[in-house]
Each structure stands twice: as structure tokens, then as C-alpha cells.
Design brief:
The protein is α+β, with helices and mostly antiparallel strands. It is built from four helices and eleven strands, in the order ααβαβββββαβββββ. The N and C termini lie far apart (151 Å).
Length: 201
């Protein structure tokens, strides 16, 4: 009788409910602790304002990083007159943007020398077209020389340092270019002629 009554007491609903409740509580505690740990480990949802790194040394940023824990990546080089080589010219994300801890920051740094490009063919283009192409190549239109020609505002010759430059010639960005364009002199009014008033005829 004692053994039977002992088994009955062990299997009572109160005992079963207690163990189920205990298991649920333990599971809930483990779940909550796991969520808190993941939030702490990944800093989930934490956003900070992106600082400005403009003008700073890209080498120092990529080697030593910052206390914010960003990962710095040099993605491009750009020559800018007067800028110290190796300093940051542009950054992505931009300063002031809200970003998460550990975000990659892509940097555009100042190149030590302007890149070399190949001269485009500008002859027979309109002055406006040639100017757009010069600017797109990072060159500078220094002067426009007009030359008598029936082809109005058409590029007749391209000069670099006073000499004609052919298509495909290597040239540094930032160099100055002179364009010789046509000007139909015959269409210009003759400043030596004067009109005679009708009442004097």
C-alpha cells in the first residue's frame, strides 16, 4: 500500500503542472537572455551619426580605424588641384547620415598626380560640343581663337602648349587646351560703312 500511494502522489496533477510551469519559466528566461545577448553583441538597432572624415589621412583611417568601429575602404582616387595627396575628398555614407555601428565607409582620396588620358578627336565638332567633351575629360578650355572660315563655330584645330595635338595623344588631366574655330568673316557687318538717311537721298 505504501508503494502504491507513493506512486500516486508522484503523478498528481499538482506535480505535473509544477514541472511544466518550471520548464516554461526556464525556457522563457533562456530566450530572454539570448535576445539580450544578441542585442548586446550585434548592437542591434543602434544608430549613430556619421562623422566627417573629409581632409583626414585615408591611410591612418584604414590602418587604425576609429572608436566608432567603422571599416574604412578606399574605393577611388581623384586628382584635385591643391588637395594634399592621400587625404579624403569624398565619403559614403555622407557626414550626418544615421548609420549602424561597424558600417563600411567608402573613401575617395586625393591622388598625387593627375591621371593620363588620351586626347579625343575634337576637329569638325561644334564649339559647344568640343567644350563639353573637354570638360568631361577633366581638361581645361583655355582659349578660343577665331579663324576666317565658312564653317561657323566649327573646331578647325586643337592646340596644346601652342602646338597642334592629335587624337590619341597622352595628356594629363587638368591641362589647358586651345581651340581654333571658324568664323565667317564675310557675314560680319562692315564697320566702315554708314547708312544714308532716306530723307537725304
Amino acid at each position: 500500500m505504501n508503494k502504491t500511494s507513493t506512486k500516486k502522489r508522484r503523478l498528481t496533477p499538482d506535480k505535473v503542472g509544477y514541472h511544466i510551469l518550471l520548464a516554461l519559466v526556464v525556457t522563457a528566461v533562456i530566450f530572454i537572455l539570448t535576445i539580450l545577448f544578441l542585442r548586446l553583441f550585434t548592437r542591434h538597432g543602434r544608430e549613430i551619426e556619421m562623422p566627417s572624415y573629409m581632409g583626414q589621412s585615408a591611410e591612418e583611417l584604414t590602418q587604425h580605424g576609429r572608436s566608432e568601429g567603422f571599416v574604412f575602404v578606399v574605393s577611388d582616387e581623384l586628382y584635385e588641384n591643391g588637395a594634399e595627396p592621400g587625404t579624403v575628398l569624398k565619403q559614403n555614407p555622407l557626414p550626418g547620415e544615421k548609420v549602424k555601428h561597424g558600417r563600411k565607409v567608402y573613401l575617395t582620396v586625393a591622388a598625387a598626380e593627375p591621371p593620363t588620358i588620351k586626347m579625343l578627336e575634337l576637329r569638325d565638332l561644334s564649339l559647344r560640343q568640343a567644350q563639353i567633351m573637354i570638360e568631361s575629360q577633366g581638361l581645361v578650355l583655355d582659349r578660343v581663337i577665331e579663324k576666317p572660315s565658312p564653317y561657323e563655330n566649327v573646331v578647325l584645330e586643337v592646340l596644346y602648349k601652342g602646338h597642334s595635338i592629335a587624337q590619341g595623344t597622352p595628356i594629363k588631366q587638368g591641362e589647358k587646351i586651345t581651340l581654333v574655330v571658324g568664323k565667317n568673316i564675310g557675314d560680319l557687318p562692315d564697320s566702315t560703312q554708314t547708312e544714308t538717311p532716306e530723307n537725304q537721298i
